[in-house]
Design brief:
Shape: flat
Radius of gyration: 13 Å
Distance between the termini: 27 Å
Number of strands: 0
Strand content: under 5%
Order of helices and strands: HHH
């Protein structure tokens, strides 16, 4: 990763599993950071990571 890479280039360089996890994390952030329960975000990210590693 270099300072000149775009987010799209970084995502394209990731494995399919890492791409899936990154997309899920972004989805969770949208769901939980913009509502009144941001404290649920970290457990949900951990849960998503565990699902993808099974």
């Amino acid at each position: 990763m270099t300072a000149r890479e775009t987010p799209v280039q970084i995502l394209e360089a990731m494995s399919p599993e890492a791409q899936q996890l990154a997309k899920r994390v972004l989805q969770l952030e949208k769901e939980y950071l913009h509502v009144k329960s941001p404290s649920l975000l970290t457990p949900k990210i951990m849960e998503a990571a565990k699902e993808l590693t099974r």
